[in-house]
Amino acid sequence: MSAHSRPLGLKTFLVGAVVVVSNVAGNALLSRGLKGRAGIFSSGPVGWVELLLNPWVTIGISLLILWAFSRMTLLSWADLSYVLPLTASGYVLTVLAGRVFLAEQVSWQRWAGSFLIVAGASLVGGTPIRTTRRRRKAP
Amino acid sequence: MKWLLVGAIVVATTCADLFQTAGMKRHGEIHDFRLGALGRALGRIVQNPLVLVSVLFMAASFGAFLVLLSITDLSFAVPATAATYVVETILARLLLKERISGKRWTGALLVAFGVVLIAL
């Protein structure tokens, strides 16, 4: 099996892990900082600045910036249709984070849905990471 | 209100992902992970017009997501927005010319069914 068709290289696994963890943690922290504060979005610039100074929101946004860059890095060699389901494992972790860290009531449907997502993501993990023509390396 | 926000997030995220993928594929594979090299790669990426357009869509999606998080549970908000999976897989095939195997379609469909269950 050539490197081109290798199902999941170490590089892809590590960057994929950064994508998933930074997304789950970032979303959980943002939820912690924003929940029940919908009014702040209509309160004008002062409210928005106040929102950005909230440490939960600040750290959450920082993690999501890390998520965006690591995801772009992953997309530089892997197909979008590969990256999307691979990173879907973040959904079950997000539901878990909501239950454990934010004390949300999670129904059986949400848990069942989470397991389906993990099953789908696992299935895609065994397919080639690129199906389009290989591009040159960036300088 | 919350489903309106979910719809806005799905549309904006789909556009962002398509532009971002096209932009990063045009940029070429990132192979040097040293800090300086990553900085130089970032410098080139931010000059890529396709990536810049994707950033605008990402910003719109993120703004709607922040509002959604303020009015509903995290365990609803994040999974509900995963409706993008099916739309994006189809568009990746049609617009980006990715070849999507039966295994990938099955995986994406399982993810989609999971998202529907979570959203119930």
Task: Summarize the topology.
The complex is a heterodimer of chains A (139) and B (120).
Chain A lengths: L9 H25 L10 H9 L1 H21 L4 H7 L2 H12 L7 H17 L15
Helix pairs in contact in A: 1-3, 1-5, 4-6, 5-6
Chain B lengths: L1 H26 L7 H11 L3 H23 L2 H7 L3 H11 L7 H18 L1
Helix pairs in contact in B: 1-3, 1-5, 4-6
| Quaternary state of the chains | heterodimer
H-E order of chain B: HHHHHH
User: Which of globular, elongated, flat, extended, rod-shaped describes the shape of chain A?
Assistant: globular
Biggest interface, CB < 8 A:
A-B, 62 and 61 residues
How many domains make up the 3D coordinates of chain B?
A: 1
Low-confidence stretches of chain A: 1-5
Mean pLDDT of chain B: 81
Number of helices of chain B: 6
Q: Note the gap between the termini of chain A.
A: 27 Å
Describe the model:
The complex is a heterodimer of chains A (139) and B (120). Chain A has helices at 10-34, 45-53, 55-75, 80-86, 89-100, 108-124. Chain A is mainly alpha-helical. Chain A has one domain. In chain A, helix 1 runs parallel beside helix 5 (89-100) and helix 4 crosses helix 6. The two termini of chain A are 27 Å apart. Chain B has 120 residues and is mainly alpha-helical. In chain B, helix 1 (2-27) runs antiparallel to helix 3. Chain B starts with a helix and ends with a helix. Classes of the chains: A mainly alpha (139), B mainly alpha (120). At the A-B interface, helix 1, helix 3, helix 4, helix 5 and helix 6 of A face helix 1, helix 2, helix 3, helix 4 and helix 5 of B.
